[in-house]
Amino acid sequence: HANPSSETATTRYVATGAGVTVTRVSTWAAFGSYSIEVSVDGAAANQGCRYDTGTSGIAVSASTAYAFAAQVQSVSGSTALQVSIDWYTSGGAFISTSTANFTAVTGGSRATLLVTSPGTAAFAAPGIRTQGTTAAAWREDGLQFEFLYFPLELL
User: Fold this and answer.
1) Which of the residue ranges 8-17, 57-66, 79-88, 120-129 would you say has the lowest mean pLDDT?
2) Quick one: which of 140, 105, 147 has its CA closest to 15?
3) Other CB atoms closer than 10 Å to residue 154's CB: what's the count?
4) Which of 49, 71, 99, 101 could anchor a disulfide with 38, C-beta 3.0 to 4.6 Å?
5) Which residues have CB under 8 Å from 152's CB, separation 6+?
6) Number of other residues whose CB lies within 10 A of the CB of residue 56
7) For residues 73 and 68, what is the distance between their CA atoms, to the nearest angstrom?
8) pTM score of the predicted model
9) What phi and psi values does residue 54 have, to the nearest 5 degrees?
């Protein structure tokens, strides 16, 4: 994809919902010098930021295991968030969302979601969002989305 890193810009990082601000900052970074800062007003559930949507998302294979991980830092205190993947068909129609809850802290932490894509999935839009209707701010960096390979264990 054109912008795999926050080192360049916020290109392809999409706000999810009204009342969401997505900016590139140098205040904190897990890797390099920049991260994406997301601020939400808490007026709606599951506000946040994801990496593109629909047919502009990341191409995936149906019924396949994937991992999405990110380094996340709460701007203030602890913040209840979700790592998420929105799934889309080849025509760009929304299918469903896979999520895992985690708590972001001011020291930064790694959030991970391991999941199998739906049987009709062709595109994915991974992101970070609030667990409910909470005003919050966090920074995210080092986002990784990849095919999850489980090697056979020799006994």
Assistant:
1) 8-17
2) 140
3) 4
4) 49
5) none
6) 14
7) 16
8) 0.90
9) 55, -140
